[in-house]
């Protein structure tokens, strides 16, 4: 990654001071490659590496383009997502709010990418516990995406998944379960059973089943999802570890305390290796809370 960052710096020796797009295409091509690599890092669970690369990429984009042009705006929101996933919630919120305001000012609040930016901002509200604002914003965006893209478009499904998460966090368990059951089935049919988004929805569905005290169904869903996550993403991907954490809570609700304690200890060790001590997922697990998986829409 460091070599790529050095290459980015060397490839942009004459950044446009005016803020307009330069005539040479190399700058944009190199930065696009770096931004996409950072997204791959995030998908693999390397959140901190993704943050580091996106910081450099965003700075370089801002030197080449005007701040309110689509390229730096996309990179800024992608950086905000990686910051949130890395546990830097305050910085993520500030950047996401600023970027959303820029999108609205430059492109209008009804522009498709402004809607996706709003959906990311809802994730940041939820991350700091402001579920009312997260719920209101996600509800509005889901309606707009349904009207523009249809029920089965991936970004509409992202909005539906996240809305179910915020309903659950707001204590509206029956609505959350109904919503995530429909969303999971749509994802399974349109994206496939082993798509990472489908697996995240499966984590959320299992949590809702646990809330409804349907513990056998929750356990079955968690064990099946865990096997798929391990195969698709690997045993130490954050989503795999989160699924194990939720399974441990199910074991405890079933009275299987020793199994729960042993699994919690293993998951904590894994999360600390991957995410670092003090990450919000670790705090939630210490508190005995099931961990939701909200999703970010695809901005690129």
CATH superfamily of the domain at 184-300: Tetratricopeptide repeat domain
- Unreliable stretches (pLDDT < 50, length at least 5) are 11-26
Could you tell me how far the N terminus lies from the C terminus, measured between alpha carbons in angstroms? 21 Å
The CATH architecture of the domain at 184-300 is: Alpha Horseshoe
Helical content class: over 70%
Largest sheet: none
Q: What proportion strand?
A: under 5%
How much is the radius of gyration in Å? Answer: 20 Å
Describe this structure in words.
By secondary structure, this protein is mainly α. It has a domain at 184-300: Tetratricopeptide repeat domain (Serine Threonine Protein Phosphatase 5, Tetratricopeptide repeat, Alpha Horseshoe), CATH 1.25.40.10. The chain contains 14 helices and no strands. Helix 3 (47-64) packs antiparallel against helix 4 (70-86), helix 7 packs antiparallel against helix 8 (154-169) and helix 10 packs antiparallel against helix 11 (215-232). The longest helix is centred in the first third of the chain and has 19 residues, at 89-107. It is globular and about 60 Å long.
């Amino acid at each position: 990654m460091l070599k790529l960052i050095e290459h980015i710096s060397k490839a942009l020796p004459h950044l446009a001071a005016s803020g307009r797009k330069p005539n040479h295409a190399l700058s944009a091509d190199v930065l696009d490659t770096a931004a996409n690599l950072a997204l791959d890092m995030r998908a693999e669970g390397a959140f901190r590496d993704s943050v580091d690369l996106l910081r450099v990429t965003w700075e370089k984009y801002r030197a080449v383009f005007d701040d309110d042009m689509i390229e730096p705006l996309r990179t800024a929101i992608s950086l905000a997502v990686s910051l949130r996933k890395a546990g830097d919630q305050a910085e993520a919120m500030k950047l996401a709010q600023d970027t959303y305001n820029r999108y609205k000012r430059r492109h209008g609040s009804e522009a498709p990418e402004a809607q996706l930016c709003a959906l990311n901002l809802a994730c940041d509200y939820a991350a700091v516990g402001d579920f009312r604002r997260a719920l209101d914003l996600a509800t509005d965006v889901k309606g707009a995406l349904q009207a523009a893209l249809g029920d089965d478009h991936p970004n509409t499904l992202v909005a539906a998944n996240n809305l179910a998460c915020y309903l659950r966090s707001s204590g509206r368990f029956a609505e959350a379960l109904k919503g995530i059951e429909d969303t999971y089935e749509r994802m399974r049919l349109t994206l496939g059973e082993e798509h990472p988004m489908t697996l995240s929805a499966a984590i959320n569905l299992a949590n809702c089943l646990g809330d409804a005290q349907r513990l056998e169904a929750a356990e079955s869903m968690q064990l099946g999802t865990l096997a798929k996550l391990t195969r698709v993403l690997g045993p130490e991907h954050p989503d795999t570890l989160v699924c194990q954490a939720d399974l441990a809570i199910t074991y405890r609700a079933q009275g299987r305390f020793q199994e729960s304690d042993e699994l919690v200890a293993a998951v904590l060790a894994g999360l600390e290796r991957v995410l670092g001590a003090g990450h919000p997922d670790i705090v939630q697990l210490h508190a005995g809370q099931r961990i939701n998986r909200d999703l970010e829409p695809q901005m690129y």
